[in-house]
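Q: I'm writing up a methods section and want to include an example of the input and output format. Could you take the sequence below and give the corresponding predicted structure tokens, formatted cleanly so I can copy it straight into the document?
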Amino acid sequence: MVLLSIKVLFKKGGKFPNTHVGGNKGLRDKGITCAKTQHREALMQQNLFERINKKD
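A: Here is the clean output for your methods example:
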């Protein structure tokens, strides 16, 4: 853990790399997102009537 955090600790403005699917430019260009993002976008496409009557 210490070896992995050396760059973060000693470099000015250092931070851990973004390993999330949305942080990868190649995947974003292809339109690939994570499951949570896809689910949220699908819910936003539904109208209020569909959201109320949805049975889980």
